[in-house]
Structures are given as structure tokens and as C-alpha cells.
Specification:
Belongs to the peptidase S1 family. CLIP subfamily. The protein is an alpha+beta fold. It has helices at residues 2-14, 17-32, 212-218, 244-247, 293-301, and strands spanning 52-53, 62-69, 82-89, 94-97, 109-112, 126-129, 136-138, 152-155, 170-171, 182-190, 200-210, 233-237, 249-250, 253-257, 265-271, 283-288. A hairpin with a 4-residue loop joins strand 3 and strand 4. The chain binds 2-acetamido-2-deoxy-beta-D-glucopyranose (4 copies).
């Protein structure tokens, strides 16, 4: 009750940004009280080509929103060409995702708490049935041709109960110039083919922040980013080959551990459309969530 009062007050008096700040503090407290206590995560690791397989529950906010077999693909029977979409759990009821994820919302369910679809998890998975098409809330300015405002929210059909392996990420709220030079990028990636099409797991890469001009140069001949990246996007460079973002996943996440926390991530970006399969890129654009806080808070918290 006290929390609600503070939330309403901050919405009225101080504007929206503080609401996410407040929610994040509540999540951190809730997560610290979970049983068993969530294991420690780290921002330090050695990146390997196509990513380091994530450990079970390492990214407790990363969920699979859906998957979809690429219809334009020549070899329709090739089961490897599934596109999957990652989402980030940001509250009991909402996922934050890339706008172009609407392609991958299949006629199934959202899967939370799983990092590897080739084997059963030892931790419980939560499956929530997809809702109607209005569960997917695109940003009103979403424009896929320009790859601008490529961000959306997804309203779950029932609230998630947080557990030690399924809990939300906080959103980046800091407006000051970025001090970090590295982020952890995560995405569903393709491993070797194992019997069926479900051969995918979450992989992580430590990527370097580079000036947007570097993405503009690398995507100069691309059908996307014709006018270049905007200030609402960030360009990062992978130190290693990273082949699978097109084939396996859209909507990867860019995050780092919350300052002083070993369990809670802060989400900086969601993958921006543009990584064509036939092109080999080292640089990737992400949409900055901080630039969309007003819209996110209005939808998620009604602020
Ligand atoms: C996962 O568990 C289910 C149900 O217990 C079982 O039918 C299935 O074979 C298991 N799959 C793998 C890959 O172990
Ligand atoms: C959350 O917990 C409640 C009460 O135990 C249960 O009824 C509900 O199904 C749970 N929600 C999910 C998504 O598992
Ligand atoms: C793949 O199929 C083979 C043959 O049916 C089976 O022995 C093996 O356990 C399967 N592997 C997985 C990961 O399901
Ligand atoms: C773009 O196309 C031009 C002309 O074909 C070529 O010279 C240039 O290297 C290409 N740039 C990139 C980044 O691929």
C-alpha cells in the first residue's frame, strides 16, 4: 500500500522516470528475498565466436516470445530456418521486445525460465498462452524500413510469479552520457542440429560500444538505416564472429548488471532490425530503452 502511494505521488509530482526507479528498487528487494537466493551473475567473461552458452537462469528476464519458420526461405523444409524472438520481462505483466518481433509471435505460448531448448531444464519453465493480437503493442512510430523506433511491449495473458530463475530486468533510466564501454548482448542462437527444430539456446557476447557512425558505415549498402542511426539507437561491435542473429533470433537484448548487484540486470537496448542473413556484420544496432521510458511507463504502469 505504501509503495502504491509513493508510486502515485511520484507519477503526479515528479513525472514518470522515477516510477521505473521506484519499481526497480522494489524488484531488487523482492529478488533478494527469493528462495533459493538467486546465484551470482557476472559482467566479466571471455567472448567466443557465436557467443558463450548462457548458464541455466543466468538471464532470468530473457524469455522466448515466439518462433516462426521463415516463409520466404527457398528451402522451406530446412528446419534450421526458424526465427525466434527474445523478450525481456520488465514487470509481472509485460515484456519489452523489438518491434519486428511481431513476425515471430507464433500461435503458441511465451516461454519463461528456459535457456536451452535442446534439453529439459532442471528449473521450472513457465508457459503462458499468447493473447489476442492486441497483446502486442507496437511503438506508435515504429517504422521498419528506416529501422527507427523498433520497439514494442507485449502484455502477458496472466501475471508471472517471480522465482529465483524468472524475474524482471530494470530499465535503463540514466539520461547522462554513457560511461560504460561494454555490454552483455544475449540472443537465442543456433547450435548443432539435434533431431528437431528446437535446437536453440541463449548465448552471450561481451560487445563494445562504438560510435553510431561505425554502424552507419557498415550498413551503408543495407536496405535498413538509410538515414543512419538516430540518437535513439546505439551501435555495438562484436569482438568475434556472430553468425546467428539473423537465422536464429530477432530481438536480442543488450544489458549489464545493475550497479552493486550480482543478480539484477539493467536493460539498455533491444535489437534493432537490419542484420540481413546474407551479410556478415560485426556491428549491430540496438534501440535504447531509456529513450522510450515515457511510453513504456504509460503502458506498463499507467503513469
Ligand atoms: C523432456 O521431458 C519430457 C517430459 O518429461 C520428455 O517427454 C522429453 O523426452 C524430455 N526431453 C528431453 C530432450 O530430455
Ligand atoms: C501464479 O501463482 C498463482 C497462485 O499460486 C497461480 O494461480 C498462477 O497460475 C500463477 N501464475 C503463473 C503464470 O504461473
Ligand atoms: C535424437 O534422436 C535419437 C534417435 O531417435 C535419440 O536417441 C536421441 O536421444 C535424440 N536426442 C535428443 C536430444 O532428443
Ligand atoms: C558499398 O558498396 C560499394 C559499391 O559497391 C562498395 O565499394 C563498398 O565497399 C560497400 N560498402 C560496404 C560497407 O559494404
Amino acid at each position: 500500500m505504501a509503495t502504491k502511494g509513493v508510486l502515485v505521488l511520484c507519477a503526479i509530482v515528479l513525472g514518470c522516470y522515477l516510477c521505473e526507479v521506484q519499481e526497480c528498487q522494489e524488484y531488487i528487494k523482492t529478488i533478494a528475498s527469493l528462495n533459493p537466493v538467486p546465484v551470482d551473475r557476472t559482467n566479466e567473461f571471455v567472448t567466443q565466436a557465436n557467443g558463450v552458452p548462457a548458464k541455466e537462469a543466468e538471464f532470468p528476464h530473457q524469455v522466448r516470445l515466439g518462433q516462426w519458420l521463415h516463409e520466404d526461405y527457398d528451402d522451406y523444409d530446412d528446419p534450421s530456418f526458424f526465427i525466434r524472438c527474445s523478450g525481456a520481462l520488465i514487470s509481472e505483466n509485460y515484456l519489452l521486445v523489438s518491434g519486428h518481433c511481431f513476425w515471430a509471435v507464433g500461435n503458441e505460448y511465451v516461454s519463461l525460465g528456459r535457456h536451452d531448448y535442446t534439453k529439459n531444464s532442471s528449473l521450472p519453465e513457465i508457459q503462458i498462452k499468447h493473447g489476442t493480437s492486441d497483446s502486442f503493442i507496437e511503438h506508435p512510430n515504429l517504422e521498419l524500413k528506416s529501422a527507427h523506433d523498433d520497439i514494442a511491449l507485449y502484455r502477458l495473458t496472466e501475471p508471472v510469479n517471480f522465482t529465483s530463475n524468472i524475474y524482471p530486468a530494470c530499465l535503463w533510466t540514466d539520461e547522462s552520457p554513457l560511461q560504460l564501454d561494454k555490454f552483455t548482448a544475449t540472443a537465442f542462437t543456433m547450435g548443432t542440429s539435434v533431431n528437431d527444430t528446437d535446437d536453440t539456446h541463449v548465448a552471450k557476447l561481451l560487445v563494445n560500444v562504438v560510435p553510431n557512425a561505425e554502424c552507419n558505415a557498415e550498413y551503408a549498402n543495407s536496405t535498413f538505416y538509410k538515414k543512419g542511426l538516430t540518437d535513439n539507437q546505439i551501435c555495438v561491435e562484436s569482438p568475434v564472429e556472430w553468425k546467428s542473429t539473423c537465422r536464429a533470433d530477432i530481438g536480442g537484448l543488450l544489458q549489464t548488471l545493475e550497479k552493486g548487484s550480482k543478480t539484477v540486470y539493467r536493460l539498455y537496448g533491444v535489437e534493432s532490425i537490419g542484420h540481413e542473413c546474407e551479410e556478415n556484420h560485426m556491428k549491430y544496432a540496438y534501440t535504447k530503452v531509456q529513450k522510450y521510458l515515457d511510453w513504456i511507463e504509460e503502458v506498463v504502469w499507467g503513469a
